[in-house]
Protein: Nudix hydrolase domain-containing protein
Organism: Streptomyces alboflavus
Amino acid sequence: MVNPMYTAYWNLPGGHVEEGESPSAACAREVRAELGLDVEMGDLLVVAWVDSDGLMPRVYYIFDAGEVTAEQRRAITLREDGAGQYRFASPERIDASLIPPFVKPMWEAALTARKDKRLVCIEVEV
């Protein structure tokens, strides 16, 4: 999890998809930008349609990036303009008040998808 300097919430590394970029390439780019890690994205776990009052609906993709090795943990470097902090936490140890409310169902869907080895599509209203 990362805590970007521009928000009070913790979240997964992420961002937007650039023109001509695939969602998995965007995810890998954001992990590299926020944590300095080169990781290969595995299975797509979640596609989430998020509808916010007053904002254009967004589509979120969550990929399985695998387990982080001890060597990768030592290699993490935070950008000065990106994440202010990072942490590793098992799902049951994550305080729900620390993550954006609309993110919780996406994280739960990702855990289900990984356990069941299937893609989960959800719709979230904010």
